[in-house]
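Type II secretion system protein GspE N-terminal domain-containing protein: structure, please.
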Amino acid sequence: MIDENVLYIIGLVLVMLYILTGFDDFIWDIITLFRRKPYKKELLDLKKVDDVPPKLLAVAIAAWHEESVLGDVIDNMIASVHYPNSMYHVFLGVYPNDDATITVAKQLEEKYENVHMIINELPGPTSKAQNINYVITQIKAMEKEKQWHFEALNVHDSEDVVHPYELKVTNYLLETYPAIQFPVFPLMEMPKFSNFFKNLVTNTYADEFAENHFSTMVSRYSSGAFVPSAGTGFTLSRAVIDSFGEEDVLPKDSLTEDYRLSLTLYQKGIQMYYPLIQVPRINFKNEFVHEFIATRSRFPYTFKTAVKQKTRWILGITMQSFKFKEIFSTKEMTFAGRYSLYRDFKAKIGNMLVLVGYPVLIYFFASLFWDLPPIYPKYSLSWYLCVLVTIMMLERQLFRAVAIKKVYGMRSVFFACLFPPILPIRFVYGNIINMVATMKAFKQKIFGNQTPVKKEKKAKRKNKQSEQKQLIWDKTEHHFLEKDVLQRYHRKLGDVLLEKGFIEPKGLKEALENANEQKQALGAYLLAHDLLSEDHLLEALANVQHLQYLPAANLSTYLQPEFAEKFDREQLRQWYCLPILESDNHYVFAFCDATPRDVADRLEATYQISVSTIYALKQTILEGLDRLDTATPLIDFAYERYEQKFISYKQLFLVRAYQEKTATSAEELLLKMGLLPPSFAVSSEHSETIKQLPESTDPLNLRKTTNLTEKVKQ
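Here you go.
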């Protein structure tokens, strides 16, 4: 028989440990709950996003043995991202000893003008940090060749579903914030009883990320605490990158380079901005919903791989990125910042409490049905403390349930938090994964990664025997989403109309229902019932199809008199097409909804030219054809850069469009957009306002200061 005093002491010590490691979290949750409203008021108005000229952005993806998913990932990104494809470039960091991935990356490079393969100087695998650091050096080399200047670096993983609006929102936020971390939400199947255990592991990730990225990260940011990078879906401005000079941006000596980088920036006074932003849209069921601008990705499906990944996270974050004394010794860090580091540090202790906590809990439940000595005698000190711990646990479950509801819906809340109530299976299983991962992290910290020779030989034999099975498992692990599922993340006409504020949600929903009943295209229905102007419709369609749109106000800047002699204008009137630009026998034509679908092929066959297309109103095209032979084209600095092949016709159109919007000179826009290097000197015959801008390896003087927030905002 167990001694009751010993049992009481065990229960008391355990419950006190839970309170010591969790009561501060309870208080933090309550306090930061009331700070969420001010944070919501800071969220941006999406209608203003398009008012900011697009900056040249670099997207870096490190890839090692990703041949099975890389092609689909990039195809989906290029097809779905709503940011001018001439203003972002994707850099794929691959290794010289990974032929399969190189083959896929090379095909993507040939397929898309804005995709580039970067072969590492070292054989792989090295580390994600080394890979991205090398990509950064090659981006800078490309800048010298192109006379460009990438304004920011966006980092993604090779299995990410990038949100269509992420880059355009990044472009807007970079006006104010030098470092940005978007939410990351794991992809999950619709939860059912039939797939509950099959998806148990990956759904524990969904639960934890929903809680962390809906609640915890918002609380951290709004209170001025340390906001860690999630390793994907984060952006660094060029000023931040240049502040490192010739040093590595991502630390190569860290298992969690993303966490260490964001901590380094925080210690210098730069807090990662965390935008929890929703956009309106019509989903695949024709329901009006709000969707988070977040990175979506698949996470491990097996206990073993989850433990392996989380072991690296726990070891890198809680045992390697900082020491306990740094929490108190780091100068000019706020209380909230110190507390957030302490909270990360103590996570490993909380994870280990599960080791004794669940056996005690099992004993407690058993004592309810069998005649066993109570571990928490009623109305004793330990009993009252146990009640407090229960309240803390229910509060945590409530916060998690709210987060899961907002991110995944009520069905997921049931399976995550109520199946069964009090101690749901997914919650318990997630804690067990974290406990085992923490134990392995401690083992690696104390003993290192060395294993006995016998164990190593045994492992090699085992790997040989299961080689075929391992290959199959890798393929399943790296499988990307099916194309029909990916289509749900793409934006359609109705989504763009909502995002731009051209139509109200209620009106769009009614129009969709009526158009479907009448078997009519949505755009045609909206025009026929005067619910949308033709100008707005064409602008939205151009956005959906990733084409340029020529406003009537910009027409005169493009008309070229020599085109009147090159082409038969009567024929062009019949085809409703207008020549706009030419370079090396490549012509850009404006088309409208009345233009026959095969006109591009007809033009190429008739005039022996190559053709690219943009959108314009029919009236704009006809007016342009009438004025073609008498027009005086605008030959400004931007046009000269186009003729010199430093910018493309797409980039020229963007410069002209924002000249009209912002009343800014072409030179200033080219500099702001990154299409001119900062050191570029414009001669006086072009402009008197743009002067030599000195290059600097540390433009914000980040290495010499510890408080940079005001500097960056200036």
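Notes: Residues 34 and 219 are 9 Å apart (CA to CA).
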